[in-house]
Each structure stands twice: as C-alpha cells, then as structure tokens.
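Example S7 (structure tokens).
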C-alpha cells in the first residue's frame, strides 16, 4: 500500500512493495513433527515421524513459509539448556535437509507457564515475532499442532487451526476444543495429512 505524504508517494509497508505476503504454516514440534515422550533434552532423543520431511518439502515447493513455533518450558524448569535446544533443532534441520526440506524459521518460548510471558502458546507472541521477520499473510495461514493451545493461538490471530492426532493427548485436546468452542478447521490423523489438506485448498 502506498500513501501520499507531504506531497510524495511513500510506501508504508515495512517490507518492500515487491514483497508478497505469503501464507505460512506455523507448526508445533512435540507430538506434531516428532513423538512426544515429554521434555526431550538432547538430539539423541529426537526423531521426526518418518513422513514429516517429505511433507515439509511439499510445503517448501508450494511456496508456503514454514515456521516452527514451540513451547519449551523445559529450559525454565532447568531440564535442559538453550544449547541443548539449539542442538536438537540443528538435528531436526539436518534430518530435513536430507530430504531437501527446510524450516524457514524456528521460534520457541523458553519460559515457565507461571512467567506470564507473551510468547508461550496460546499467546500470540511467536506469531508476532514471525510477522516482524517475514512477509506473512496471517489470515491465509495455518497453525498445526496437537494441543488445544495450538488451536487457540490460531483462533486468536485469525489463522486456520489444524489439530493432529499424533500427540499423547490429542483426543483430550479435541474434547477441550469442543468444550471451549474453539473452531478446529481440520482434524488430521498426522502432519502429512494436514499438509495434504492445506495443499488442496
Ligand atoms: Mg505439541
Ligand atoms: Zn515465553
């Protein structure tokens, strides 16, 4: 968008006028991309579900931005360090790279639930940070996760919410969403089903 200011046409977007805002898939980590045994503390404990790299590659090739958004309160709880978390995320990116897939960004909340931070899901802080860093069309975007707070975050920012059933408590999450009347746009058996649904739209 351009506006006339002081007699001169100026661009009021942060991003360049040539930058198209892209639909983005905000993807949760534990229970969505990988089995969730609770508080993964080292790369050795981390492994993607087998169909995940190919599914992310499909999103990459379709021109969607893919950003991981993950609550990692294990840092605040002292279960693992920031370095441990970075090592885990490097392993994830390396595993994806073997299939030529990638995450455009990785955002995490290291805080404790009692900290009252803005970045812990369902709060929108990680999406706000992503929007400051990338040209994102939030209304055309998706949040994919295994917990009701993923759906709640989607709803809060006006994105679509997809619940995957690969989490430890996915059934309960679905019940909570119904109870709280949080609209679940799609219930996906697994992440690659979520991707297929997104790409059909
Ligand atoms: Mg999760
Ligand atoms: Zn936080």
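Recovered sequence:
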């Amino acid at each position: 968008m351009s506006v006339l200011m002081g007699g001169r046409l100026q661009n009021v977007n942060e991003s360049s006028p040539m930058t198209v805002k892209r639909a983005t898939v905000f993807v949760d980590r534990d229970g969505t991309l990988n089995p969730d045994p609770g508080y993964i503390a080292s790369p050795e404990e981390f492994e993607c579900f087998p169909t995940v790299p190919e599914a992310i590659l499909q999103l990459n090739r379709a021109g969607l931005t893919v950003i991981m958004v993950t609550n990692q309160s294990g840092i605040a709880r002292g279960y693992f360090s920031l370095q441990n978390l970075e090592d885990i995320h490097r392993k994830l990116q390396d595993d994806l790279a073997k299939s030529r897939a990638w995450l455009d960004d990785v955002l995490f909340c290291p805080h404790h639930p009692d900290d009252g931070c803005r970045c812990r899901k369902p709060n929108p802080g990680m999406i706000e940070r992503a929007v400051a860093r990338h040209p994102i069309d939030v209304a055309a975007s998706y949040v994919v996760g295994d917990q009701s707070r993923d759906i709640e975050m989607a709803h809060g920012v006006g994105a679509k919410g997809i619940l995957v059933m690969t989490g430890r408590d996915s059934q309960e999450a679905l019940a909570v969403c119904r109870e709280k009347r949080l609209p679940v746009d799609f219930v996906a058996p697994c992440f690659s089903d979520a991707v297929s649904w997104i790409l059909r739209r």
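Notes on this example. The chain has one domain: 19-200.
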